[in-house]
Specification:
single chain, rod-shaped, 4 helices, 143 residues, mainly alpha
């Protein structure tokens, strides 16, 4: 038995082209959305790493608990109207000897450490390990 030869009408081909173009546009939109999300996640990971490093500095210098260290950074950020990432980057730069902390950050950091330091532990006080731009980083060999 012979199958009849079927052709598609111009309207059917046109309708399929519209569907294909619609799917392509949807995929392009989804691709753009995923690229934006990927960029946001990369930024978040980088920010998280900087905050974690700044926490490490606070923990090492002031011997405070990690949760308290985060509260210190958060409070400094709020009280100085500075993004948390910028505060963290300032602390890291100071710890690496790249310069002093900005004065408002230094002042608020000292106050926040006093509020969140371990009671009765003089090593947690700013007087013992000041996070001041003029002072050396403990253990750095600076004078």
């Amino acid at each position: 038995m012979e199958m009849p030869f079927m052709t598609t009408s111009r309207e059917q081909r046109s309708a399929r082209d519209v569907v294909r173009k619609g799917r392509a546009a949807q995929m392009e939109g989804e691709n753009a959305r995923l690229e934006r999300e990927n960029a946001q996640l990369r930024h978040a990971v980088g920010s998280h790493a900087a905050v974690d490093q700044a926490l490490g500095v606070l923990i090492a210098v002031h011997r405070i608990e990690p949760g308290a260290g985060f509260e210190v950074l958060r409070e400094v950020s709020q009280h100085t109207n500075t993004r948390l990432l910028e505060v963290a980057e300032s602390v890291i730069a100071w710890a690496l000897g790249r310069g002093p902390l900005p004065e408002p950050v230094s002042r608020e950091l000292d106050a926040a450490v006093r509020r969140h330091g371990r009671p009765g532990d003089p090593t947690g006080s700013p007087e013992q390990h000041p996070l001041r731009g003029a002072g050396p980083v403990p253990g750095s060999g600076g004078t």
